[in-house]
Give the backbone structure.
Amino acid sequence: MNPWNCTLYAAGVAIGLAGASGTAVAQTGHRPSKGFTTVATLDVGLNPHQISFSPGGAVAFVAAAGSDMVTVVDGRHPRVLRSFPVEHTPLGTAVVGGGTQLLVSRFQSNEVIRMSLGSADLESIATGDGPSLFAGPVNGGRYLVSVERANKVMDIDPATWSVFEEYPTGHRPFPPAVTTDGRLAFVPNYDDGTVTTIDLWNRVVLGTTVVGERPSGGVVFPNEFAYAVAVRGENKVVFINTVTHEVVGEITDGIGDSPFSVVLTPNGRLAFVNNTASHDISVIDVEVRRVVARLPVGEIPIVMAVHPTGSSLWVSSEGSDELTVISIPARWRGPSVAAERRSAPGPITEVLVMGMIHGGHRQSETWGLDDVRETIVRIAPDVVCVELPPDRWERIWTDYVARGVFEDSRVRVFPEYTEVVLPMAREGQFLVEPCAGWSAEMNNLRRARIQAFNDDPLVAEQRTEYDRVRQAVLDRYGGSLSNDDPHFIHSEEYDRRMREYYTPYDETLNDLIGPGGWTNINAAHMRWVNEAIDKHRGKRILVTFGGAHKYMILDALAERNDVRIVDVAGYLPRR
């Protein structure tokens, strides 16, 4: 390591303040392991930190904290292009404004700045003591930045150049990770040994999870089921369930000394862990959650980024003052597992869509729980898609199989599952695939935004017209929208009426509500239904959702040429 005249501490490691040039150190064909190839080792200045890419990855910007500069690197053919000064220990970078502006966090001057890349224009926002790396973009282009010594995370909107929100964390928060829908943020608290979970949609801190000594950085794994965080003081990666916020697993085998963060490839096939004391990268096969390679890099690899194309891993090593670019083997660059299944040729899949009435099944004399069971037996599905969220499923199924209980609040809403479908699945009659796009955060946001719409005097006329149109539909059909006759529920007339009733709700409120809007939530449901179909090609699949969703699901299924829709009506109890 270089002798430094002056040091400070950020992100848990020493940062030198001496200057350095941004010239290339070496280009090499060294092959670290398993087909991964180091294609460039570059001098980008002292103590390089966050790496961000322009749209498409043509250019990379590297914060050289110890040299008080940002180095610009050719993203396609890695070489240093230039550098420009940024005082006061730049740690984080993020490209915004369609590639015309750069956000930089300045650790020593306690601020985030926005620079115009084509001019000397500069604006700043005060952050408090110790702003670190950025996470984003989230929710319309905003960025999160952890402020280490102020024990908070700031949500900054570059478009308005304002602070959207601030969230309290534990002691010494490190960079957050966010779900792909911008719903949840997970913040490792380095000094506390905890992770703080934030609901970004509803702007509230949800809770704190103990994970071990010195958690330092993580990522949300594909399908959003788990947040994986490097626990630096215990040489492991810990997984937290994104719904229960409980620790649900860990990886120790193959993790090196002092792991610092986790990043994913765009296709979700690989995760990388930078081990700051063993000076290497652990490569995790995400599907099996196992380390498959160890890649040597420079001293103290402190920050990583994967090129937007998924073709290479970029590693800032602050101990040896270098940027390493490693080519990712072609076999790992293909489509995601789900996309690969979808594109593969396969047999026609039979799909049936059954409309449920949830709690109404308990009282209905025509579509009761025994009727549901009888219908399912007649259909004889191989797979049943249920209106339960995938990120809650493992807990729901484990509770039921191991202890015979249903503790999850969501599953208790559906007696057709607790009393019919899951008991039948436990007997081995079929497999179950959870296919609901619902989340508690979505539900809370939807409720709040509908309430805001109802209370807003500026939209009083629009609200009156909306209420009039919906009431006219109810009046026209004399309450038949709530008919519990399964033969009517599974008719074209029922679907037509539901479409007529929900269209004004959709057109008026979908965009306002956001993720929980009618079109949006049904699209979220269909994401999981489509994955289930792709996973079980050639099987007979029964999709069970609330009857109102049925027409939307049938519309979406009709767009697939590998699906044959089978009418449920022929399997219903006789009148």
